[in-house]
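Structure ticket #2291
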Amino acid sequence: MRAMHRVRVGVSLAALLIGCGLMSGCMSSPRYGTDKTAGEQLFDDISDIASVSAVTPKDKGVKYPNRPGLVLPAEKDRESLTAPQQSLASKDNPAWVESPEDARKRLADEADQNKNDVNYRSPLAQADSGRNRVTEAQQTAAYRAARQDQDGTYIDQRRYLIDPPQQYRQVSDQAALNDLGTPESKKEKQRKKDAEAAQQTSSWWKPFQ
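Resolution: structure written out below.
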């Protein structure tokens, strides 16, 4: 044991001397983006390989107990053990939710089996035919809703982030909201009447009035 220890110490010292020799010739070697030169890194690697260890192992005298055995029930109770519960996450479970892909495949297979039955109506055909059937009233309502959405004339709720809060869109006087003001035809008549009155009151010595 001591002879092996001496051999390891000799190898370590030799590696140390070799590392020092390499360090003397690699002091100006590049660092390759690290905090150590190539020579220093080589010296650290050699030191890690040929590390000096003690004669006696460090873990001498440490007691490692054996792993305890499994805890088993008594012999008389082993026959009455509860069976493990079956996994509910299985297609065999009647409460398992059918995916849309499985439902469509099942209906397609059912339609293939009843292709010679004239009274059979596939749910897939009914769904496809009723999906695009829209009445005229529904089309009109959808068009008006789209125009309100485009013009921003809706005040029932805030639909976009650029819309102001709903409390800011409420008017204090509902009658003022429905007041359209004076019609333009009346305004035009009033302007003509005012112009005629101004011409009648003008004097001959004020041609530019």
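Closing remark: The chain has seven helices and no strands.
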